[in-house]
Amino acid sequence: LASSEASVYSFHGQSVREERPGIIEGQGVMASNGSASSHITLNNGRQMPVVGLGTWQAAPGVVGAAVDAAVRGGYRHIDCAYAYFNEKEVGDALQKLFKEGVVKREDLWITSKLWNDHHGPEEPFKCLETTLTNLQLEYLDLYLIHWPVPLNKGYTWPLQPHMFDTTRSIKEDTKETWQAMEKIAESGKARSIGVSNFSAKKLEDMMEYAKVVPAVNQAYSPLGTWGTSGVKINLLDHPLLTKIGEKYGRTPAQVSLRWGVQMGNSVLPKSTKAERVKENLQVSDFSLSDEDMSELEKLEQTRFLQGTFWVNDSGSFYKKAEDLWDGEG
Ligand code: NDP
Ligand code: 1BO
């Protein structure tokens, strides 16, 4: 299926961009020569910009300014989701940028994600329509199934047992949902489709029926998602990132992002601070040496966001975190 080092899975002769489990996660891809380019070519030939602005936990009232600063500063990729509940403000910021002629729609890559309470054969279209209305766009560049976790209508979190939709198995739910995603792709309202938080096992299961091979399996939190509830390690305080950063005159965040990019991944740093937004894009004008890449490789590999909020003894299909990831770590 895949070598442990590679970030691309091959299914039916097509590649699925896959996360490389690690301390630093991105929207995984493999570069042919280990060097970073400004775009990544997906399995349908579309070109996705390598650095994208993350918008999870970018609060209403500040997310619009972050998008504005990002696009004016050169970002061409914004990562959104229905469940971030800030897409309207992102859309307002984009409209302003279009009207002022700062950027054209076709020069941007906009990703969004189908929320868990809209799985099934019909609901994905409704979720997409809400997202497009809020973002004030005609189409998305990439639409992802956010999590392999079906919820009953109207629920996000904090989760309680009655919120999980257990009327069908995860396999059946994913099949129905993916087939709807394929119709969305056919309609042109999402130019690429993919998944997020899927194990290789779940991807394999999809290959029994998928007509469109997912273009992306999104991984994320390239700065360690510091500040997120339950995350106890501040990656950016790691002495190795500081030491390597000093050598290149770069911040720990830039070292972390550069590592991700140099590994062949796309990275989605989130910040609502204009200076950091700018700093996080400046990762294409330096390279980490092979030696420094090897040092970073030796750090403990861990998943910062383990999805433990989907683990529930009585309601969920997932009784422990390993079940969600099919034991893949
Ligand atoms: P990140 O790893 O991007 O870390 C964000 C944190 O780092 C925030 O606290 C931010 O604070 C801080 N930060 C940003 N830049 C710097 C900097 N240069 N120096 C120091 N601190 C900095 O976390 P996320 O978990 O948000 O991941 C990024 C994106 O990935 C998300 O926003 C989302 O778009 C996507 N994602 C997708 C998921 C999925 O299930 N598919 C799950 C999780 C994330 P501040 O804003 O104050 O600068
Ligand atoms: C539970 C949502 C995580 C951010 O995408």
Automatic annotation (TrEMBL):
Location of the NADP-dependent oxidoreductase domain: 52-219, 237-299
InterPro entries assigned to the protein according to its UniProt record, in alphabetical order: AKR, Aldo/ket_reductase_CS, NAD(P)_OxRdtase_dom_sf, NADP_OxRdtase_dom
Source species: Marchantia polymorpha subsp. ruderalis
Gene3D superfamilies: NADP-dependent oxidoreductase domain
GO terms of molecular function: oxidoreductase activity
Top-level taxon of origin: Eukaryota
Organismal lineage: Eukaryota, Viridiplantae, Streptophyta, Embryophyta, Marchantiophyta
Protein name in UniProt: NADP-dependent oxidoreductase domain-containing protein
Keywords from the named record: Signal
The keyword Cell wall biogenesis/degradation appears for this protein: no
